[in-house]
Amino acid sequence: MNTPRELDKGYDPAGVEERWYQHWEEEKLFAAEDEDSEKTAYAIVIPPPNVTGMLHMGHALNITLQDILCRYRRLCGDNVLWMPGTDHAGIATQNVVEKKLMAEGTSRHDLGREAFIEKVWEWRQEYGGTIIRQLKRLGASCDWDRERFTMDDGLSMAVRTVFKTLYDEGLIYRGKYLINWCPRCHTAIADIEVAYEEMQGGLYHILYPFADGEGGLVVATTRPETMLGDTGVAVNPDDERYAGLAGRKVRLPLTDRVIPVIADNYVDTSFGTGALKITPAHDPNDFEIGRTHQLDMIKVIDDQGYMTAEAGEQFAGLDRFECRKAVVAALKAEGLLEKQEDYIHSVGTCYRCKTVVEPNLSKQWFVNVKPLAEKAVEVVRNGETKIIPENWTKTYYEWMDNIRDWCVSRQIWWGHQIPAWFCDDCGEVIVAIETPEKCAACDSNNLTQESDVLDTWFSSALWPFSTMGWPDQTPLLKTFYPTSVLVTGFDILFFWVARMLMMGVHFMKDVPFADVYIHALVRDEEGKKMSKSTGNVIDPIDIIEKYGADALRFTLTAFAAQGRDVKLSESRIEGYRHFINKLWNAARFSLMYIDDSNREETFSDACLADKWILSRLAVLRQTVAEAIDTYKFNEAAAALYRFVWHEFCDWYLEAVKPDLYGKNGDDRQQGSRIVLRRVLRDILVMLHPIIPFVTEEIWHVLPGEDTSIMQAAFPRAETGPAMVTPDAGAEAEMELVMGVITGIRNVRGEMNISPSQALSVIVHAGDQETQIRIAANEAMIVNLARLSSFAVETIGEKPKFAATSVVDNVTVYVLLEGVIDFAREKARIEKEMAKLEKDLKGVTGKLNNDDFLNKAPAHVVEKVKESFADLQARREKLQATLDKVMEMA
RNA sequence: GGGCGGGUAGCUCAGUUGGGAGAGCAUCGGCCUUACAAGCCGAGGGUCACAGGUUCAAGCCCUGUUCCGCCCACCA
Q1: Nucleotide nearest to A866 (CA to C1')
Q2: Residue-averaged pLDDT of chain A
Q3: What pLDDT digit, counting tens, does each position of A605-664 carry?
Q4: Could you report the predicted ipTM of this complex, rounded to two decimals?
């Protein structure tokens, strides 16, 4: 027999978590079986965290949910592959290493490209494992032997293959366009990498004088510095104010240029002055207008954000924002600034570094994604991939339908260098998977590779199949592609999920995943996204050290209701740590009474509490399985919490204590021990996906369980023991008994009677059957309500000095001769009466309503009638009691 | 401007074939009852944002209003 010594008094996760994680890894319990496995394949690819990443709450939630799914599926007998890895995170990683170099007094430019990249690899070798170690502390059961990195040889091959294929298909092209340029990251970024923010700015009205006469045109702009690059002014052809002006010329202030007035429907007559200055090199709309009207494109801001020589001697070299002030001052001086007003408008910033993005003319590589997007929309429409919760599909369609070409080239060094070579002699462009030896056009050996690298999301888009060995047709792909589900936050729905769908459908001819589960974002108390730059981060590792990984995991799971963001508070984590401890102590207690002899085949005679808890357990396993199957993690957590604490601990354990103590004979003792063992075992297994560490720790003290809990089977109706079965009769009877006990406890509490004072109780049951059922459970009632004497009869005289509680058709009299406080009892009953009256009023209203009686379904009417009778009976009994109390008082 | 989500107890939030408003934390009262004071037993507390509609019946379905949050959009 086990003794409580084997488990400490309180649960301390500190050593436990590390010990079991190590054990799981050593025993290879996370490893997927190979393609010969008979089991059902279940696969998840991890959203690869940045290799520079530090675990944040978003990861913690994301990983916890995936881990729940994977662990649950393993318990269900599936062959689970959870593919882990990290993302090389081009710009982010380059930034980190550059900072380090700066601290060392050098820079990437000092080192040169090759040496710099060498440094980044070194950095990764040294620090890149941090995030992985942190995922392990959370308990992530990934198949670590298969860990991938987006810059691995295999994945790089996949990247080059995809690039080459798309190029050959005409879906990748290179050209000079206006792109979003981040002057700080010093690279082009894609449209979706621009984050728009409302900013306080000004709207400046500037007079552009006619070149050939009096007067002029007033334009309005938020960016006066860009006027230096203006090559036209546009008005709407239907605008009567400016009728006949098209074709005339204006003099561009602060320069010696004369620019044309053009007519274009794009111009909104109601905005500003109705005259629009055109800067084709620095505004996307102006770029389009400039192209249609063949205006010059003059670049006045350089890649660093400084004014170019083209901006004029006066302004060249100024920072763009300094220049804005200078231009405004100069205009004022010349009397050309007509008006200046405060203006709040949205400004594009780099989503990574928050620097104001500069639209810039530049030669870049683009993917024509429209054809890919169409196919990726189709697979969602026809249900091959299901997005959960469903409301995200609308957002997905919306975005995909309006998708624009994807700028994939980045002017940084760390990343997949674009597999394109330029012939120095003839200018030919060669796109190839392997480095070409000579020019395909002129046989020259003077080839220079494109220096740009690819957008990091280009390689992540291939993740579901590149990690499994593609372009080779590997057994892994055959077994696990398409994957079962992708679990991620909505913030990368477009960045990543949409692109994986596009690439997966295009290259694999099959969706990358059957389900996409979009979970909540973890936010701070103000509902803001947690981010390092905002400084509102709660560090999961701190939380794990303080409360344990299980407490954090359970909290996140309980929070993870679909469609609602998580605002995390530490007090709630503390609350769930209490739950872990509760479980621990319940197990500690149970294990004192469980031994290897408690085999189920010897189980014959169950008491009411046994039948009841087994019935509840049967319902629970159904609830939990269904909840996890449908990604309703919070429902699974809530059901388990309620069962363990409020049914198993509060009622069952208390009810069977006398049995366990051996007070009711050997048979009863053995019976309850068998049930106890079964319930505890099943609880542990069902909880294991959510709280793996503590369940494993307890599992190993369970006699007869010598393998890991990870190798147990999830309790299911079809495979579980027959004793675990729904039993409506037992549940109803138990509820009756619980009602009587609660009634007595209520009196005790309200009348301020000490728990140590045993009470005498007489119960009047409404009918004989009820009487029999209550009498049969007298021992439980006496025990749990702490009674010194108990009697139940169908009819009898109402005791004189008693506090009364009415439940269903049962009246409970707590005898209080000599101690009853009539005033208190009167108040208590009146309170009860008031409640009753309120309920009765509602029910009566329904029953007096013919429409209700005629139209409501029979079972609903029946229920209401029953409840009416019940309420009325209770009222009568209470009234009688109240009358008596009034007499005495 | 468009789209999405939300408004339920003091706080944080659950609550779908529409049919008796819930949990955790906090508060109040009583308990060291031999697993657990990180606990046990009780109690109080809500016009389910507002207005209308559908229905026998609405927190839930429909319409409008309002407030908050997020996403998207080329108004200089």
Answers
A1: B20
A2: 89
A3: 788 999 999 999 999 998 999 899 999 998 899 999 999 999 999 999 999 999 998 888
A4: 0.93
Which of the 737-756 residues on chain A come under 7 Å of nucleic strand B at their beta carbon? 741-742, 745-746, 748-750, 752, 754-756
Q: What CA–CA distance (Å, rounded) separates A507 from A502?
A: 9
Is the pTM higher than 0.80? The answer reads: yes
Q: What is the pLDDT of residue A242?
A: 84
pLDDT given at position A528: 65
pLDDT score of A527: 63
- SS3 percent helix, strand, coil of chain A, rounded to 5, is 50, 20, 35
The Å distance, CA of A689 to C1' of B37, is 30
| Positions on chain B within 7 A of a protein C-beta | 3-6, 12-15, 19-20, 23-25, 29-33, 35-44, 55-57, 68-76
Q: Give the list of residues 6+ apart from residue A411 with CB closer than 8 angstroms, or none.
A: A186, A187, A188, A451, A452
Greatest alpha-carbon span in chain A? 117
- Peptide bond preceding A389: is omega within 30 degrees of 0, i.e. cis? yes
If you count DSSP H runs as helices and E runs as strands, how many of each does chain A have, helices first?
29, 29
CA-based nearest residue to A469, from A516, A510, A508 = A508
* Crossing angle for the helix pair A666-687 and A692-699, to the nearest 10 degrees: 150
pLDDT digits (tens, 9 = 90+) for A552-562: 999 999 888 77
Nearest nucleotide relative to A743: CA against C1': B42
Helix, coil or strand: residue A114:
helix
Structure tokens at A354: 């928050």
Task: Give the closest nucleotide to A752 (alpha carbon vs C1').
Answer: B30
A75 contact partners, CB below 8 Å, separation of at least 6: A685, A688, A689, A710, A712, A713, A714
Q: What is the phi/psi pair of residue A176, to 5°?
A: -95, 115
Residue A7 has pLDDT above 80, yes or no: no
Protein-to-nucleotide distance from the CA of A499 to the C1' of B51, whole angstroms? 45
Q: Is the pLDDT of residue A359 over 80?
A: yes
Does nucleic acid strand B have an atom less than 7 angstroms from the CB of A634?
yes
Cα of first residue to Cα of last residue in chain A, in angstroms, is: 57
Strands (E) in A499-655, as ranges, are 513-519, 522-523, 566-567
Report which residue is nearest nucleotide B31 when distances run from CA to C1': A755
A:656-695 Cβ neighbours of strand B under 7 Å: 657
What's the token pair of residue A113? 């490209």
Distance in angstroms (rounded) separating the CA atoms of residues A240 and A242: 5
User: Would you say the C-beta of A536 is within 7 Å of strand B?
Assistant: no
A268 touches strand B (CB under 7 A): yes
Give the containing element (helix H, strand E) for A23.
helix A13-26
- The CA-atom distances, in angstroms, between A448 and each of A70, A116, A362, A435 are 47, 19, 19, 10
Q: Is the distance between the Cβ of A133 and the closest atom of strand B smaller than 7 Å?
A: no
Q: What span, in angstroms and rounded, lies between the C-alpha atoms of A278 and A425? A: 38
Question: Is pLDDT at A532 greater than 70 in this prediction?
Answer: no
Instruction: Name the nucleotide nearest A785; use CA and C1'.
Output: B41
In whole angstroms, give the CA distance from residue A166 to residue A169.
5
A528: CB within 7 A of chain B nucleic strand: yes
Distance A760 CA to B37 C1' (A): 29
In DSSP terms, A204 is beta-bridged to A221, A340
Contacts of A283 (CB under 8 A, 6+ apart): A178, A223, A226, A359
Q: Give A454's strand partners.
A: A409
What pLDDT does residue A1 have? Answer: 36
Q: Which residues contact A221 (CB under 8 A, 6 or more apart)?
A: A203, A204, A206, A227, A277
Q: How far is A706 from A601, CA to CA, in rounded Å?
A: 20
Tell me the CA–C1' distance in angstroms for A190 and B11: 42
pLDDT of amino acid A5: 40
Please give the structure tokens belonging to residue A437: 């030896």
Q: Which two tokens stand for residue A607?
A: 């008491």
